[in-house]
Amino acid sequence: MTILILGSGGREHTFAWKIAQSPLCKSLYVAPGNSGTAEIAQNVNIGVTDFSAIKTLVLDKQIDMVVVGPEDPLVQGVHDFFLNDQALKHISVIGPQQAAAELEGSKEFAKEFMMRHNIPTAAYQSFNASNVEDGYAFLETLNPPYVLKADGLAAGKGVLILNDLNEAKAELKNMLVDAKFGNASSKVVIEEFLDGIELSCFVLTDGKNYKILPTAKDYKRIGEGDTGLNTGGMGAVSPVPFATPEFLNKIEERIVKPTVAGLQKDNLPYKGFIFIGLIKVGDDPKVIEYNVRMGDPETEVVLPRLKNDLVEIFQAISNETLHTIDIEIDERAATTVMLVSGGYPESYEKGKEITGIEAITDSIPFHAGAIVKDEKVVTSGGRVMAITSYGNTYQEAIKKSYQNIEKLHFDKMYYRKDIGFDL
Ligand SMILES: Nc1ncnc2c1ncn2[C@@H]1O[C@H](COP(=O)(O)OP(=O)(O)O)[C@@H](O)[C@H]1O
Ligand SMILES: [Mg+2]
Known about the structure:
By secondary structure, the chain is α+β, with helices and mostly antiparallel strands. The chain has helices at residues 10-20, 35-40, 51-60, 71-75, 78-83, 98-105, 107-116, 132-141, 165-176, 245-265, 299-302, 310-319, 394-405, and strands spanning 2-7, 27-32, 42-43, 65-68, 92-94, 124-128, 146-150, 159-162, 187-191, 197-205, 210-218, 221-223, 227-230, 235-238, 272-281, 284-291, 333-341, 364-367, 370-373, 376-379, 383-391, 413-414. Among the domains are: 2-97, Rossmann fold (3-Layer(aba) Sandwich); 123-191, Dna Ligase, domain 1, CATH 3.30.1490. The chain is built from 13 helices and 22 strands. Helix 6 packs across helix 7 (107-116). The structure holds adenosine-5'-diphosphate and magnesium ion. It catalyses: 5-phospho-beta-D-ribosylamine + glycine + ATP = N(1)-(5-phospho-beta-D-ribosyl)glycinamide + ADP + phosphate + H(+).
């Protein structure tokens, strides 16, 4: 098969790494890709939401399957674009259709879905500019901290957690009336605060059947001890040690089953990954959010533990025969540590040469914000490279990642030295 991956991060390099191992994959393209995907696939400089350029590429290269990495093209309906085009409709697309992608595209839609299907989540109400006063009144009924979520996609910046009631009211007004997050905050979901430890669960579905992938925990804050600004993710660990079989069973029964059944009942066509953000409150899992694609850097620890041929799984998703696949998971733990540009997530410099990659022996360097320029690998983004390792325990794996990072260098390189500290 000829396969196209859309995206350019560590997630997409990991997909490319895994797909390239499949005997079913004859030819692999990544759009736009990075320096890591350039080594194992052919990069094509096309944006992930440029549907007409994607169409031209797909027809030109006779692509059979498109694997969608990020959420934007899914929320903009890339799968529907293929299905509605006579020349493209036979091509497999891994990722939900637009109606189902609303689970990530609209926080309110996701909340209504969970309420309808009795899926445990925080209590909430949603507001818009016309009833901002009701929003203030609702805030007064809650205990701090106050959780305010912009309804639409806001690149991971649309959630505010505030301790002070007046500040929460002011921010609510900022979001609804002054368009703090543009159109994304024309609606705001206000939620009950859930106190507990977070983890993520990853599910594959063909719309009818599902398979559960390993859990992972990511580290979002820039600073050690989970302090400072939010980032796209600074590292991840899989499996999550506190996710016991009993707890995983609760996740499957109370959350995964009703989610997949709910998709069918509501006619939300879904062939792809469901990323369920969870919080463990006492001994019970509650859903924080759905994402309609894999996480980054969670992919960098989840896919390396999957022993199956990923292309075979994708074919089964496409043919709605996912029930025939037995998922096999590597018993070892996997960890990843993200190397970032100094200054990230605020302003940072690009174009710094990355050296030492070839010296890495028993870790896998997944490239993220890195490109090839003048035959050198240079930084091109905030999150630059994710160093993944295996170990019999996550402690052993993380040690390996840190040992290998010692061999890598770029100007103003930064990383967290405490990934897994809270487990
Ligand atoms: N109800 C809640 N209670 C406590 N913390 C929350 C709640 N909702 C979100 N959070 C925190 O805010 C983060 C971002 O929220 P999330 O819904 O995942 O939005 P996004 O990933 O789209 O920015 C979560 O990872 C979690 O740490
Ligand atoms: Mg989230």
